[in-house]
Amino acid sequence: MKEQTQTLNPKEAVKFLLQSFRLERYFYLGITLVSIVLLGYCVYILIQKQDITNILVMLAPTGVITYACSRILKMWTDCLDFYKTTITKKA
């Protein structure tokens, strides 16, 4: 019997990974957009009222933005690492 070896096309593999992470990516992007809007609102209130306590309110959205962006970048890094691994296995 012939053994069937299935070769992975790197582009198809990355497409598969991106489709697998689609819901998670949209979730993090949505959280990032909401956090940016909230941060803008906090800056607006800070300018209007000139109250120093509003600066503390801005810490939450900036932390969420940082975390969400780091998760999105990690997903891209995982996809690129997989792509590099697939290319080196073919060579």
What does this structure look like?
The protein is an all-alpha fold and about 90 residues long. The protein has one domain (about 20-90). It has helices at about 10-20, 20-50, 55, 60-90. Helix 1 runs antiparallel to helix 4 (about 60-90) and helix 2 packs antiparallel against helix 4. Residues about 1-5 have low confidence and may be disordered.
Structure summarized in a few sentences:
The chain has 91 residues and is an all-alpha fold. The chain has helices spanning 10-20, 22-49, 54-57, 59-90.
Query: How many H/I helices?
Result: 4
- The beta-strand count equals 0
Provide the residue-averaged pLDDT: 76
Largest sheet: none
- How far the N terminus sits from the C terminus, by CA atoms, comes to 27 Å
Tell me the helix content. over 70%
Structural class comes to: mainly alpha
The gyration radius over C-alpha positions equals 21 Å
Shape: rod-shaped
Question: What is the total domain count?
Answer: 1
Element-level helix/strand string: HHHH
Uncertain regions: pLDDT < 50 for 5+ in a row?
A: 1-5
The share of residues in extended strands comes to under 5%
